[in-house]
Amino acid sequence: MTQAKTSASVEDEAPDRGKRADAVRNIEAIVAAATRLLAVNPDVSVNEIAKAAGVGRVTLYGHFDSRAALIGEVVDRAIVHTDKALAGVELDGDPREALGRLLEETWHLTHRFGAVVVAASQVLSPEQIRRAHDEPAARVRGLLERGREAGQFRDDVPIEWQISVIQAILHGASAAVHRGEITPEDAPVLVRDTTLAALS
Q: For the chain, which has fewer Cβ within 10 Å, the N-terminal or C-terminal residue?
């Protein structure tokens, strides 16, 4: 994946180190703004991202060669953050309760990154998109398999369909929050209860 272009040496003189610090701050501001805006509008423009980041268009392109490169950086960071957050969820014990915990944590991540996945699908390869979903889907699949074996989840439909339903509920809840239909505080429980009801 294309990374932000930072190429200053640690042996630079103080003025250069200052420039490097400014560059790092600009990169972080750009990525943060892009993540926030893309989560709501996958078609947001580079100009809008630059304005929200408090930098000029030239500065943005000085760090990212293209909109696709910027989206790639956002996706890379989202994958790392998601993996770290979900790795902290306790998945042992009762599969139904474990899935409930995983769903609530996944909701917060889905809401944070929202339509980033839509923006990513417009500029990244299918393989890159699949990589973003592989690890989270593997966690869900493992719990679904355990729950099926324990008789807690229905096994008369394909497991891949159940995973698709879960993803649809998560993204649907995020969109509903953005539309003001439900609150961010109510969403995690609604996602958990709706999903578990659909799987029972």
A: C
